[in-house]
Write a structure and sequence with these properties.
- With 264 residues, the protein is an alpha+beta fold.
- The protein folds into 2 domains: 130 residues, no CATH class; 89 residues, no CATH class.
- 39% of the residues lie in helices and 18% in strands.
- It has a 6-stranded mixed sheet with strand order 1-2-8-7-6-5. The protein has a two-stranded antiparallel ribbon with strand order 3-4.
- Strand 1, helix 2 and strand 2 form a beta-alpha-beta unit.
- Helix 6 packs across helix 7.
- The longest helix has 24 residues.
Length: 264
Amino acid sequence: MASSCRTRRLLVVGDAAYTNSSVIRARPSNVTFAGRARLDAAIYAPAPARRGGQTGRPRVRGTRLPSPAAQANAAKARWQSVNVNVYKRVVTVKVMTLDALWYSVARSELVRLVVVRGFPGHIDDDVLVSTDPTMVPRDIIEHYAKRWSLEATFQETKGKRGFEQPRSRTERAVERTAPFTLLLCTLVVLRYARTGCKLRSAQPSKAPWYSPKSSPSKTLPAFSDMLATLRRASWAERLFEPDTNAPTLKKRLAPLLACLGTAV
């Protein structure tokens, strides 16, 4: 298992907070990192070839280059139009590719920086980076856009499943609590996809902001809708199962009453 992980090529995608030296320099050789960089990054040309008979320590970087922002704003900037599939739609963006050394982050490793103009949801230019200088700009942009599904998952686990609430004080608790919370969210989605979507309890939200006139683009259920479907089905099974006697019904109602009392 460990040997397979070392030989398999892995791509790690992260936001700007993870695009730093501690992540990029320490990664294994079979891991490629793609993430958001800085427009004011200090970048350099690769170190020049060592001349015959030259003495002294070899150079680790070449001359300093203009920052990605400066090159993007230059009069002779070389932009290319690229069609990318991001956020479930195909859009055309302008890109500028820069292969350079981002020495403060990756030392003398050549990286590929892609300045993007016209990226959906971004008013200003943005710049992405990949530690694989052979990766085409389209792949870098599309892989980075896939990060949004992770962000949405974290938001749902925090807001709907209490991901931030446990006060874990031991290493084992930290290792177990977070994965288990994410596992529960996965089970909710899988359960809805397999059987929940076919139940009568899978009713769309009646909130006015989800009406066809005000929100015609909402065609898929949110995680909160899937969770509500599971809760309705669970309580229906608890309360309306045939041949339920009074003591059993009282026992089943106890969690509901406790929940209502806590909510109030």
